[in-house]
Amino acid sequence: MERKLLRILTWLAPLLAAAWLLSAAGNLDAGQAEEELRQMEQAVRRAAVACYAAEGAYPPNLERLQADYGLQVDEERYTVAYTVFAENLMPEITVLRNGG
Q1: Which residues pair with 95 in a beta bridge?
Q2: Tens of pLDDT along 29-81?
Q3: What is the DSSP track for 20-68?
Q4: Sequence ranges of the domains in the chain
Q5: How does 9-28 read in b/e, with b if 16+ C-beta sit within 10 Å?
Q6: Nearest 5°: CA angle at 57, between 65 and 54?
Q7: Which of 23, 35, 71, 88 suits a disulfide with 65, CB 3.0-4.6 Å?
């Protein structure tokens, strides 16, 4: 009986270890995706602030940041919502990942 249990544990332990490693890798990917979103949002904010510092007003749209301030957005991966209320107020900036 003990031998049979030992044999089962011998097969089960590596399977459990592999499942744990796969779960840990999935958590790493999720963390990296969140970090990429945060970095994209920070890049948009930095470009908007640079425009405000240089011109005294926030840019009216995202295209202006791309054309004049070097902002690059991978539009296949991200959707950026850039909503302006007034030229002297920081725009509302939201970055979403496309495709889930």
Answers
A1: 80
A2: 677 888 999 999 999 999 999 999 999 999 999 999 999 999 999 999 999 99
A3: HHHHHHHHHHHHHHHHHHHHHHHHHHHHHHHHHHHHSS--SSHHHHHHH
A4: 2-97
A5: eeeeeeeeeeeeeeeeeeee
A6: 70
A7: 71
